[in-house]
Amino acid sequence: MKRSSTSLPILTEAPQRAERADAVANRQRILATAERLFVKRGVANVHMADIAKAARVGQGTLYRHFVNKGELCLALLDAQMAEFQDRTLSALREMSARRERKLEQLLWFLDAVVRFNARHAPLLCAAQREVMLPESPTGAPFQWQRMTVIGLLQGAERDGEIEAGLDLPVIADVLLAPTHPPVFSFLHVANGYTLDRISAAIQHVVRGLGCRQGRLRQRPHV
After folding, report:
1. Is residue 202 part of a domain?
2. Alpha carbon 211 to chain centroid, angstroms
3. Does the keyword Transmembrane helix belong to this entry (predicted)?
4. Exposed (0-12), middle (13-18) or buried (19+): which is 207, by Cβ within 10 Å?
């Protein structure tokens, strides 16, 4: 993971070995088949054996590319994650250029995370269940979100927007906890809370951090 000129972390891909043409073709066929089955049946109702059969590859071939369904889901999320990261960094740079406060930028980012995770909840849930352990490098998408929040909090502390000496990593985890797939599913699906309500609750906590310099204005949803 490297840093941008705005001191926010940028998720980078690990170097990959060159693949043979047939291996690349198999991987693309597996991904296309998995995506089609997930849309048709739902992520939870599709098993690795189903994907191998529909893609017409052996299970050994499937598992050489993806050790479990979580890794496969992460691969499907790559493009969406990259687009989300690019859009986020561009928006935060523009907000910094307009000299918007770091807590205002944090409000925007957390709302964007809520809505991104809502769109991709089934894939994220499967990925987290099987591969996104805290110590695992495959948890990089969530770690990028966490480091972005910490970076914005550090900027807010530097600029005097929040009290100095707060435990920023813990605060970042508290702010992001409702967006993690199992918790988000409980809030949005089990309890029926709308995305607006979930986002507003998180932003209420952020506004509380900025109370020393007055309440932050209500940020419209993006």
Report:
1. yes
2. 28
3. no
4. middle
